Amino acid sequence: MIMVQAIIQPIRLSTVRSALEEAGYSETMVSDATGYGRQRGQTAMFRGNEYRIDLLRKVILEVVIDEDDLDEVIEIIRASARTGTRGEIGDGKIFVLPVADAIPI
């Protein structure tokens, strides 16, 4: 088994979840996160003053799948999480982790 962990923009969460559910991957876990990658935060204006926002809001979506489904799931997430036609800096990152076992409680 493999865990696919996708860190994506919150505005793309419903699109990614819908695409995964349509393909038959409905068991997901979602959690909030803050951080930044290459985009190094943002600059914003408030009451005429410019300030820097270092940590940006992101969402972590996790799904545990069979190893045979890995390429399909990665492509679904990549295609549905992109904000532009080719993707933009800040769209997110996908991590693939091995899962030794899954034990129901």
Automatic annotation (TrEMBL):
Pfam families attached to this UniProt entry: P-II
Keywords, sorted A to Z: Phosphoprotein
GO molecular function: ATP binding; enzyme regulator activity
GO biological process: regulation of nitrogen utilization
Domain of life from the UniProt record: Bacteria
Record PTM O-UMP-tyrosine, positions in chain: Y51
Keyword Disulfide bond tagged: no
Cellular component GO terms held in the UniProt record: cytosol
PANTHER family given in the database record: NITROGEN REGULATORY PROTEIN P-II, NITROGEN REGULATORY PROTEIN P-II HOMOLOG
The protein's name in its UniProt record: Nitrogen regulatory protein P-II
